[in-house]
Amino acid sequence: MPDKKAPERDAGVLVIGLGRFGSSLALTLDRLGQDVLAVERDERLVAHYSGRLPLVEADASNPESLEQLGAKDFGVAVVGVGTSLEASVLITGNLVDLGTPQIWAKAVSAEHGRILTRIGAHHVVFPEADAGSRVAHLVSGKMLDYIEVEDGFTIVKMRPPKEMQGFTLAESGIRKRYGVTVIGVKSPGLEFQYATPETRVSANDLIVCSGHAELLERFSARP
Fold it and tell me: Are 157 and 206 in contact (CB under 8 A)?
């Protein structure tokens, strides 16, 4: 007889911990129409978010609690607990034991992150450190938004330097001269337009560029 296939896991997201990181994540997922279930053991937070989110009051560091709430049926789990290293590690370990396909875990330090990775977390995020790095780039130059994707590859939104204003991208030769790529242009009152060599940039436009972080920092420093 053929082997019975294991039931497919639901595409929903289990969010454990409703601190600033976890609550923001869960509320955003819910607003985007994702199936999300939040788990929180603090009764004050449970009362605060009750009615705003699908929510269960439980201690996820207890493996029996996770089993009872059906954690094994979720394809993605996010451990938003960061203030208690012990709880964070226990919860992540419980999810690993359940065989959760994708485990995202919040870390508050490099050491915390290494532990989470070693016990089986698939993705470790550093919200405070990432936010600090992003804001540092924004306050130090003309960048209006900054997203580092991976290995230094970055996307930024910024005002165009004077040498671009009034010229097409082909005429200004930004990619050849600075090693960055203009992805698109947002003119006041108009929709975002993907860039072509014929795209003309004005002083009031916003440009979205991609490239290595160091090259973008150098480019954004142009007058």
Answer: yes
Domain range for 120 is: 10-125
pLDDT at position 221 over 90: no
Same domain (yes/no): 21, 113: yes
Phi-psi region of 33 (alpha: psi -120 to 50; beta: other; left: phi over 0): left
Q: What is the pLDDT of residues 5-21, one digit of tens each?
A: 444 455 689 999 999 88
Determine the Cα–Cα distance for residues 116 and 132; give it in Å rounded to an integer.
21
For the entire predicted model, the pTM comes to 0.66
Q: Which of 92, 125, 158 is the last residue of a domain?
A: 125
Owner of token pair 């994707």 = 149
Q: Are 143 and 158 in contact (CB under 8 A)?
A: yes
DSSP assigned state of 153: E
On whether both 23 and 58 belong to a single domain, the answer is yes
Dihedral over Cα of 159, 151, 111, 81: its sign: positive
